[in-house]
Amino acid sequence: MVIDILSWILIIIGGVFSIISAVGLLRLPDVFTRMHAVGIGDTLALGALCAGMMLQAGWTIVTIKLFLILLFVF
Fold it and tell me: With CB atoms 3.0 to 4.6 Å apart as the test, which of 10, 16, 60, 71 could cross-link to 52 if both were Cys?
């Protein structure tokens, strides 16, 4: 039960940061501030989403694949 709650909290945090970085991409004035908003926000969003999905998946091949996705992005 605790793992489910923690994983859903991480997934919601990842979704919120993804939406925030998308709004930053649309609303910020120049290319450098847009890159900064999207780079920081999407990296945090991807980390939180992958961590939440890893907790949901347990110790399976899916967890290894999600870890490799995180590794290649970072």
Answer: 10
